[in-house]
């Protein structure tokens, strides 16, 4: 039996999961109730070592961080890979076939990032610890909604590129050892700035878990799927997580 994709979705927005099911009916999925950020007692998470005392994430960003962290902990405790999706992802039909090929081809992988924000530069690890950046073309929600079926039927094999930096965690696979590394490296969550891929001398403000994860990709066996295996509608107006990233 296939290991289902865990889909993080808030109980109070069932329409988002319903839409996910519509777009991805061909895949085995398991809904995971997202942590409601507004109900978080921050002091408890500080005491447990999840948050630093000076963490400045919004309540939504705290909630989504806790939701992902719980799945990392589960991957470690059950010694099992976790495929994790947010509820605005549209995923290719052949995801499991591509994952199985990558799992065999790349020994000791920690994380595969299958879907990422196309309105933000991606950083790839090059020689001599250099980072080279890729820039995509941001697709509108209407474009993706109107063309998702042809995307899902795409059969071109993606390449797996050594990952240094990316925004968004719409779909990723994490191994048990990768999950442990993320727990060790990311916690307690603080506001340590990341490097901006287009110019690594520029700081990228750490306003959410995807930025925190991006800080550590270079030090992990992390890979990016290119082209992506998942597209995100990424509708900021209706986002239940957080607003856009900024520089400081």
UniProtKB/TrEMBL annotation:
Q: Which InterPro entries match?
A: Glyco_trans_25 (IPR002654)
Source organism, top-level taxon: Bacteria
Which Pfam family, an example, fits this chain? Glyco_transf_25
Q: Can you give the residue ranges of the Glycosyl transferase family domain?
A: 4-186
Under which name does UniProt file this protein? Glycosyltransferase family 25 protein
Record the organism: Acetobacter farinalis
């Amino acid at each position: 039996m296939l290991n289902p994709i865990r889909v993080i979705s808030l109980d109070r927005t069932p329409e988002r999961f319903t839409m996910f099911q519509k777009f991805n009916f061909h895949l085995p999925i398991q809904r995971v109730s997202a942590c409601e950020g507004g109900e978080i007692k921050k002091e408890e998470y500080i005491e447990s070592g999840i948050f630093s005392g000076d963490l400045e994430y919004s309540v939504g960003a705290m909630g989504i961080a806790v939701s992902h962290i719980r799945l990392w902990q589960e991957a470690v405790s059950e010694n099992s890979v976790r495929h994790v999706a947010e509820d605005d992802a549209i995923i290719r039909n052949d995801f499991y076939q591509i994952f199985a090929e990558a799992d065999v081809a790349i020994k000791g992988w920690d994380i595969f990032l299958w879907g990422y924000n196309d309105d933000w530069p991606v950083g790839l690890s090059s020689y001599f610890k250099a980072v080279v950046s890729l820039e995509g073309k941001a697709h509108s929600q209407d474009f993706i909604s109107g063309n998702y079926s042809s995307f899902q039927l795409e059969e071109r094999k993606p390449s797996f590129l050594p990952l240094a930096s990316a925004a968004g965690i719409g779909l990723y696979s994490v191994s048990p050892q990768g999950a442990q590394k993320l727990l060790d490296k990311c916690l307690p969550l603080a506001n340590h700035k990341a490097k901006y891929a287009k110019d690594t001398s520029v700081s990228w403000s750490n306003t959410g878990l995807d930025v925190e994860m991006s800080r550590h990709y270079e030090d992990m066996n992390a890979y990016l799927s290119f082209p992506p295996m998942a597209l995100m509608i990424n509708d900021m107006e209706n986002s239940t997580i957080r607003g856009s990233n900024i520089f400081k």
